[in-house]
Amino acid sequence: MQSSNRAPQDSGQQEASSNVSGHGYVAEGFEPVAHAFQASIMSGEALGAACTIMHRGKTVVDLHGGWRDSARTEAWGADDIALVYSLTKGLTGMASAVAVSQGLFSYDERVSDIWPEFGAHGKEAVTVGEALSEQAGLAAIDLKLTLKNIGDEEAICAAIAGQKPNWKPGDYAGNHAYTLGWIASELIHRRDPQGRRLPQFFAEEVAGPLGQDVFIGLPESFDRDRIAKIEGFGMQDLFIRHTTMPWALTFKMCLPGTLAFRTLNNPLVLEGPQALDNEDYWRIGQGAAGGMASARGLATLYNAFAEGGEKLGVTPEVMAILTKGHRHPHKGLKDKVLTADMYYSHCFEKPFSAWEFARTRSAFGSFAVGGSLAFCDPEDGVAYAWITNQLGTAKWDDAREKLVRDAFYTCLENRS
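Given the sequence above, the corresponding structure tokens read:
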């Protein structure tokens, strides 16, 4: 791996940086993060990856390495992007926070007051906050999805609205692997004076103002040579390469009729998440699992929230809601789909006793299938993004990513 001469962009003056044995820069005192990052690449456990970390508005880590293709012929570039799967939920959470701040709707408002059809089959009392915190019981959609109809938001939202919930709303939360994006998009569409759906709203109100290569729906104009292609896993790999994914989930994902199967295999049907890494899907703008982003872009967007949200017009009241988190489901944090505890809140995930991914509970972000993680911690002033194109099989705390994050926090503690 060779050093890059390209300096990262940040929202303030770049701290004194030193070249590292790899691609990118680290600020003085953060050299161990570069060593941890390089270890993941050199071990072969990550085909390619990128990591950008900002602290108090300054970029302290900006690294990339490995390959953006499985043939290992194209090196991962500093500004390359990749399909980031469920990290998209965090982007949708940002757009929703902007929408709430603009007065389009509130988290306490009932979804059915905005979208009357949604109230069918006992869903009339579900609030926006509950729906965006994955408590509405709409994890599995009854409509059969394909890559041909997955872009038909009008038909899909009609199906979601008329569907009986998978559980009593508010009792549990469960991974709304795809439906979360459509729910948020419909809420924005119905209240936005311009009638925009999520992809356009996000581009114009979040990514655009910050000038970042982060997309929910990849534009035709984007250079396809800057896309790192995904190297995925098949269902057999969940058994052969089993790490921290719950065995109950591993089995249920393979059993037709279970909630996990119906949620996670529609539209994939046992093909594995790599099947979504194609031109047709990139363009759709699926708001829960279809985002395309660079690590630099993700960190910059999260930094806007780490600094209080003012750059995007997010109000202090909305920031307080995001940092506090949505109330837990009535019957606890165990995810009805993933069979393990998770804390979902307003399209993000929050730290809790089983997964303290940040130093303070003010943090919020999202973890994705395969190991990628992006979040901010407003109290700590941290914005973090680690993405990879080689999908692992961890529940969370992917070993490759966690090695880098732990090194960063050790360096941060040594500086204080």
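Residues 87-291+308-349 form a domain with the Beta-lactamase fold (CATH 3.40.710.10). Try to locate this feature in the token string yourself.
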